[in-house]
Amino acid sequence: MTVRFPSNIDIKKGFQVQLYESREDIRKAKIVRGRSINLALSHRGREALKHIGMEEKIVSKGIPMKARMIHSLSGKRSPIPYGKKDQYILSVDRANLNKELLTEFFLMTVMNITVLRCQTPLSRPGGEEVQVNADFVVGCDGAFSVVRRQFLRQSRFNYSQTYIPHGYMELTMPPLDGQFALAPNFLHIWPRNTFMMIALPNLDKTFTCTLFMPFDEFDKITTGEQVLDLFQTYFPDAVPLIGADALKRDYFRLPAQAMVSVKCSPYHIGDSCVLMGDAAHAMVPFYGQGMNAGFEDCLVFDELMDQLNDDFGAVLPEFSRVRVPDAQAIVDLAMYNYIEMRAHVNSRWFRFRKHLDNFLHFLMPTTMIPLYTMVTFTRTRYHEALKRWHWQNKCTHSLQRLNNTIKKYMYGVV
Amino acid sequence: MTVRFPSNIDIKKGFQVQLYESREDIRKAKIVRGRSINLALSHRGREALKHIGMEEKIVSKGIPMKARMIHSLSGKRSPIPYGKKDQYILSVDRANLNKELLTEFFLMTVMNITVLRCQTPLSRPGGEEVQVNADFVVGCDGAFSVVRRQFLRQSRFNYSQTYIPHGYMELTMPPLDGQFALAPNFLHIWPRNTFMMIALPNLDKTFTCTLFMPFDEFDKITTGEQVLDLFQTYFPDAVPLIGADALKRDYFRLPAQAMVSVKCSPYHIGDSCVLMGDAAHAMVPFYGQGMNAGFEDCLVFDELMDQLNDDFGAVLPEFSRVRVPDAQAIVDLAMYNYIEMRAHVNSRWFRFRKHLDNFLHFLMPTTMIPLYTMVTFTRTRYHEALKRWHWQNKCTHSLQRLNNTIKKYMYGVV
């Protein structure tokens, strides 16, 4: 990690903090390449932002998405709500979010640290290497964390990184006659089983379309005509909206990007180092929880700091104990959604289940809560949401069986 | 990896090879600390040794083990054969094996390499760092492979390392009146559910006892009296054989050692680097296949080199394609045996299943082959053995159900 702007900051709890960032200052940089353009913000992320008084600032620049909008091959569009009428997720701009957070030094509210003792070499291929002396190091340095590399040298550190066979590529759908080209308050999905496209709205009335496809398939396409062919075949309604020429050009701008899932345990070394966010638990983007889980890490850490009187020796093991199972649950759920979003979402059964879940939730609002609701609109611990979901599934199946038995008894129908 | 004895060797296929080894020359060193003392050699390992004309040399210094010998808490001893009467595994001395292999440069038969281009920094904490220029690098550098660290920087490299909660500790059981203190041609097991002890015979008529126990439990024991207590309670028959004083002393000689399971994919980078052995697939020691799988890697690689005319560009991707699923299968099976050996082996059901499997194998020798036999006494690809085992289990269950149905029909018994 090349040090671009180490900053000395004294914050909230009286710790002295130094921030190291390998990318250039996003507030001054023009183009940020190779990262997704927009992110889904939901309850957990908002709670963390609220905690530092920044919720409104971010939310006001986000676009509510109340439902998925499924685009079938024939061009039919069917909405599937995310939750109740007043529940939505927000499409927020990554660049703007980063700018605001850097300005407010949000991340610092958890990095309550004096930088003095613990030695961690920070470097990047091509960058200079820096030796940092600190009492305490927080590694919030993403899926390819440099800080985490030190963890790998410790005994009994469990670690896994798994790449999925799919890559992703972003394309822009411009405004149409000055307006959004598609209904703006939706997360648009074109599920095509082995691959899919999604589109999220931006403040400038464009949509960012993301194509998810196996790398093998990306590799096969080498000419503009082949790109057009692919889109005409699978996403015909999107072709005029993105534009044939733009498609042929933009497809070759950047190679498809890889997606990695990272699990590890524990998240700390002694009382001197802790991992948070993607560094601790990178996930595939299919549950829209990556940023939210990372922000919630901060909240959980802050809550433990309060409970345990800012004693790092007690907070760190507790943070690992509490947070590891939750993070692993959402990493697994994101992987599960990787299949659900591109394949199941297409099926009648899926839509029936979503409606059944919502109906049962309406009947028994505190007993039967849809998984998506628990994950997205509450702070139910992720691993509890997962456990509860399994339990609810059993109940639903029992209900269905009971229903079949009654039908059979009353009407002789199986 | 500190270079202790780089050696220039011209071997078999005419490649020029340099060997780097971080440990001091085992042929000159006195004590090798922190590694298990003996290893189980079986068919796959022997086939590799045979290929380089070293089988007899190693086998002649090994001690055949024809069966497990289960020690119950009451002191009862029950043998469970590994296979047919003439099938056995061998307890071999790690130090002697290493010496012989170093002398014969066995590992080199696969490292058919000229050392020229590919840059790999080799270093160990505390050791000097060496930059090696080579056309081709083979990383056979163990579970904590330095070469593998370079793989982690590649995109789309899948990797996992998992530590089990158990540690292990080795203790020596001396000869009794100049003879083996226990029957020598067995692998002795004291299964105690959450933990266990095993003992393997050595040429000098000692046994090496290995205690497997959760680290938590190891940590609780801090005095000689507590050690004695543990052994009196769980391994009473072993106490007089190891000796109370030796137990109290030797337990504190070295801390319990960790055990790690490593999976990764692919095993190669381009046409210039490949991982083999524990570097590619470290496994917990409970199937006795770690060394055998590593040696078989060499055989598989050599077979591919012959098939593909020593073309590294073709051999390397094929090696990954063929070997990854097999290695992952045996890593999983070793983890499964981690439970089977200390818990199931204790149960009547386990012994009944072993006998049933052997009986079915006797009736249908080519259709129903016990998993242990496929893994240990054949070169059936590991992942095929695993698949076949699942299939055979289904058959066995069907047979049992059929049997129950017949019983019910004929005698009215369920």
From TrEMBL, chains A, B:
<feature type="domain" description="FAD-binding">
    <location>
        <begin position="125"/>
        <end position="305"/>
    </location>
</feature>
<dbReference type="GO" id="GO:0071949">
    <property type="term" value="F:FAD binding"/>
</dbReference>
<keyword id="KW-0274">FAD</keyword>
<protein>
    <submittedName>
        <fullName>Kynurenine 3-monooxygenase</fullName>
    </submittedName>
</protein>
<keyword id="KW-0560">Oxidoreductase</keyword>
<dbReference type="GO" id="GO:0070189">
    <property type="term" value="P:kynurenine metabolic process"/>
</dbReference>
<keyword id="KW-0503">Monooxygenase</keyword>
<dbReference type="GO" id="GO:0005741">
    <property type="term" value="C:mitochondrial outer membrane"/>
</dbReference>
<dbReference type="InterPro" id="IPR036188">
    <property type="entry name" value="FAD/NAD-bd_sf"/>
</dbReference>
<keyword id="KW-0521">NADP</keyword>
<keyword id="KW-0662">Pyridine nucleotide biosynthesis</keyword>
<keyword id="KW-0285">Flavoprotein</keyword>
<dbReference type="Pfam" id="PF01494">
    <property type="entry name" value="FAD_binding_3"/>
</dbReference>
<dbReference type="GO" id="GO:0004502">
    <property type="term" value="F:kynurenine 3-monooxygenase activity"/>
</dbReference>
<dbReference type="GO" id="GO:0019363">
    <property type="term" value="P:pyridine nucleotide biosynthetic process"/>
</dbReference>
<dbReference type="InterPro" id="IPR002938">
    <property type="entry name" value="FAD-bd"/>
</dbReference>
